[in-house]
Amino acid sequence: MDYITELTEKGGKAKLAARKLATLSTAVKNQALLAMAAALADNQAVIIAANAKDIAQARENGMAKPLVDRLMLDETRIKAIADGLRQIAALPDPVGESISGWLRPNGLKVTKMRVPLGVIGIIYEARPNVTVDAAGLCLKAGNAVILRGGSEAIHSNTAIASILANAAQAAGVPAGAIQLIETTDRLAVTAMLKLNQYLDVIIPRGGAGLIKTVVENSTVPVIETGTGVCHTFVDAAADLTMAQDIAFNAKVSRPGVCNAMETLLVHEKIAPQFLPAMLERYIQAGVEIRGCTQTMTYHTAVKPATEADWAAEFLDLILAVRVVGSLDMALDHIAAYSTRHSEAIVTCDYDNANRFQQEVDAAAVYVNASTRFTDGFEFGFGAEIGISTQKLHARGPMGLPELTSIKYIVNGNGQIR
Amino acid sequence: MDYITELTEKGGKAKLAARKLATLSTAVKNQALLAMAAALADNQAVIIAANAKDIAQARENGMAKPLVDRLMLDETRIKAIADGLRQIAALPDPVGESISGWLRPNGLKVTKMRVPLGVIGIIYEARPNVTVDAAGLCLKAGNAVILRGGSEAIHSNTAIASILANAAQAAGVPAGAIQLIETTDRLAVTAMLKLNQYLDVIIPRGGAGLIKTVVENSTVPVIETGTGVCHTFVDAAADLTMAQDIAFNAKVSRPGVCNAMETLLVHEKIAPQFLPAMLERYIQAGVEIRGCTQTMTYHTAVKPATEADWAAEFLDLILAVRVVGSLDMALDHIAAYSTRHSEAIVTCDYDNANRFQQEVDAAAVYVNASTRFTDGFEFGFGAEIGISTQKLHARGPMGLPELTSIKYIVNGNGQIR
């Protein structure tokens, strides 16, 4: 089947399914999620066999070891992925919530009600667990989903999507609710980005390159996720022990994720007390430091930072460090280089804390905590489809309510205008 | 100045202004709105003189009379436009609202706070009143705005934007908060649609052609407004007098707007009692009827409807009429042809009313009322920047809260992960 035919057929099926999904009961959706979890366990041999083909192919193509590891599925991982579906089943159903309602002077009763978005396209890279997470979250929020994973995981994804779709359908979910694009032709992505007739939204999940391609080429509305050039500003009035723990955690605990810190800003007043020990701790942990000229005076291992370093999302054990003369300079630096993901100040000064949280424009703005907390689970949402770095529709960690829209239900008794 | 230079300069100024606008007090914003209203009145001679140039040009170019009328400004209209700014000043400020907040088990306090979107681009057609409305609404919600009106109104818009920007600035609003693109080069629109570096969102206001161009070419997130192929379904269990009044109002009261009905669906059981008088009333009012074969049996003046008529937004005294065998057939017709703007059922049957409101996917779904009520003022929002027909971010009439985003304010005391 050519990719245009596949996209059109699956788009049409998804749209039909979405009409039925919109009024599907919470009970049926939850039963389906549990059945999907059970089906993954029951079919783990099939999944592992399919995954083995992807792994063999990846090794043949010389894929880097950490990427091969992210692609790999075993019993433990499949169990964890299935447990994720059970957790989604346990979450409250966002659909049908009356968000607000009021009576107009003419007697019209207006109710703002939460409804599914409709058909969601998810475009992602190698990790096959996204196939399950995205299918589960979209289903719980009443949406049909069209999944387009990376070609590296095509055997795993095809096996998983087929198992999930069959289990869901047997539990009463309409056919077409969960579909995977099976062609690995890259042109299918380009065509999917123009599928306005069938898709209500596209959510890309992956690296900066993928997200850029989607944002620049999609005519379907996009929720941009991901890129995080996050800062921590250690103010003159900081508790230096707390500052060191927060700054260390924000960089080192998991450097490859979007909420990890990329640039540390330090007030010049406390730089002499703070930076030497801080830099030594980083360097002991294997962090490469690229600093401004002042930073370089505090440790011999500091390399000079270039303009590009201030804007870089390293996603690695590399940190840019800059000494600034004031809170205003920190705010200006952040305004210039931040991707508006997560920003933190460490301070004991009430006014500085407030100003920072008021003036910094980012999805999450922290006082005295690590930027690493920007996460759907850490925020208490019980799920996460991604972290939005745009301002439209959703910002920050996206849970189930972010996968919904609204409609106005208006009840009258003959009103005309 | 070439358009690239103009866009880049104004984009940069808007972005700087947006940082300051985000923390501007409600008092200053309201004073500025009142000062802008006063300035329009004080400078009405200047505005009318500029408008006269546009009118002369329009007549020279043979613009249709109703369009010339929409372009025309006089003392009465300027007063009404200025009053609109005073109404915006009287509305509550959406910025700074705590939407929700909670404490995490680790002691982190998370607050979801309403903040401005940032920089909004408005692309619109001939009506110069949009210049004032959009500037006022964006300012109140703390956003910088870049306006791009139609070339037909360039003299009026340039005069108005300059008066508004000066008045706002004198009242304490940062420079760059209100800017108009002054070049009439059409390439400026194309370039504006790619201005991701400066614009957070683009809202097109105008005809289907403009909206299509924006949706298909913008890499900046868009809020799609406008197109309404709205239906009214007269159920078998309808009060026929009420149904006639609602169906007449929905088509005839203002046929040129997006919430006007374009297709009337009638249950076949009541078609013999309902349609002859209804069709006669429409025809007396000058409405051209394009009907299905059954409809044609009820009045000799009915012309045959084509497939294209079911999908048409006539925006005129033309109505498509179809007799359907059941509520399900009505729901299928609406699912196939609706633009998901506003849909109505007239019925006394409780279950049919509920099913219609549950199953129809549209921004506003009515029982026993005219679709003409889909409007920010009629919904009680006190303002309207447009009516969204997409599902992302905003759906239906958009007031001030729809011109905002959120950020998470997170307060800790040393939490690390």
List the helices and strands and how they pair.
The structure is a homodimer of 417-residue chains.
Chain A: H1 3-21, H2 26-42, H3 44-60, H4 65-71, H5 75-90, E1 98-103, E2 109-116, E3 119-124, H6 129-140, E4 144-148, H7 154-170, E5 178-180, H8 187-192, E6 201-205, H9 208-217, E7 230-234, H10 240-252, E8 261-267, H11 271-284, E9 288-291, H12 293-296, E10 303-304, H13 307-310, E11 318-324, H14 327-337, E12 342-346, H15 350-359, E13 364-369, E14 386-388, E15 396-398, E16 404-415
Parallel strand pairs in A: 3-4, 3-6, 4-5, 7-8, 7-12, 8-11, 9-10, 9-11, 12-13
Antiparallel strand pairs in A: 1-2, 2-16, 14-15
Helix pairs in contact in A: 2-5, 2-7, 3-7, 5-6, 10-11
What fold name goes in the CATH topology slot of the largest domain in chain A? Answer: Aldehyde Dehydrogenase, Chain A, domain 1
- What's the arrangement of strands in the largest beta sheet of chain A? 10-9-11-8-7-12-13
**Pair with the most extensive interface?**
A-B, 67 and 67 residues
Helix fraction bin of chain A: 40-55%
User: Can you tell me the number of structural domains of chain A?
Assistant: 2
List keywords for this structure.
homodimer; alpha/beta; 2 domains; 7-stranded parallel β-sheet; 42% helix; globular
